[in-house]
Predict the 3D structure of the following.
Amino acid sequence: MTHYLSNYAKFNSKEEMDAAARMHLDIHWNMVNKTDRAVLEMIRCYSVKYLAAHLKHETIEKKLNLSNSTVRRTLRKLEKLRIIERIHYVRPVMSGLGANIYVILPVDDQGNLDRGTNGKEADESEVSTPHFENEPSFYQSKNLKDPIKTSQPVAEKLSTTLFGKMKSLLSISGDASKAREFFGIHRALSRKMLKFEIHQEKGPLFEELAHRATRIAVMAQKTKTIRNLPGYFKGVLRQLISDELFSDIYQEYSVSVDDFCLPGGREITSIGPIDFS
């Protein structure tokens, strides 16, 4: 007999659900705090058997020693970030609303993450051109017999290290040949931000985010079919950059920002993700 919670499952196995939870935390690392992670972990633990959890607010409050308002705010935040789905459950016998059902969601596929792009847009010719400025030097040698440089200018060293890390990670899934395209996507997105004076010293940060996005893409490919891996990587990297640079915009309030109004009764519009395209 199928347990009723199994009808709400989004995954085929506990391992897939656990991998998705880890990827969510990687993607939104700078958006979630200790409380958010604790609530997500509790939902994950209660979902181990049927891949969905039937929990009362009171249960979460007592287990984690949190106030009712904190639990409600945290659940709203996890929903807004598309990490969990909250399903209102109607009791079949006594009717009326019972405890909510919580389901960890799969990480959005490349269609949502990349907003319909295929990783080879015309406005990002840097990705498709044969060579990049300050590209790892072993790609600048057209003749394989040419001696490969063993040292690079300071500006190249970090990028060369990043390229090596990308290639190493991608080799795990047999996609090492895509490292060059990944590196180009990173360069295209980071250049758009580095042209602003406020971000000009953040080159190492963008490289760290690119490495993290590569790892997330490789992990995601282990749990689901990804038609366009570079496009998926690009979407993840966009999200990581947005979270890292603009996370201070998202302040936590006990009342949703939608409930606030400007003078004259005008409503405050929500601030969405930053579009780098």
